[in-house]
Amino acid sequence: SDTKSVFNLLVDKLGLTQEAFRYCALFEMIDNFERKIRPNECLHTIYIQNYCSAAPSCILLRKWCFDTKMEEILCQMDPVFKK
Hints:
Elements (H helix, E strand, L loop, with lengths): L2 H12 L3 H4 L2 E7 L2 E4 L6 H9 L5 E7 L4 H10 L1 H4 L1
Antiparallel strand pairs: 1-2, 1-3
């Protein structure tokens, strides 16, 4: 599945509100470097490529919010986002 499909399934499973999930994204972390994964990328392909390399890697759900006031509001509105 592509990133968008997996992301939507994940936020639904976690129970994030519509407002909160707009401020989250999936990231690939390799050797302490994080990059936001594009919506059309295949996560399984990323996982297999990283699995075969020597560098430690993982796929993360992280916040993608650059407004501290909005982040505070989201933390008050959504306990899953706050976690």
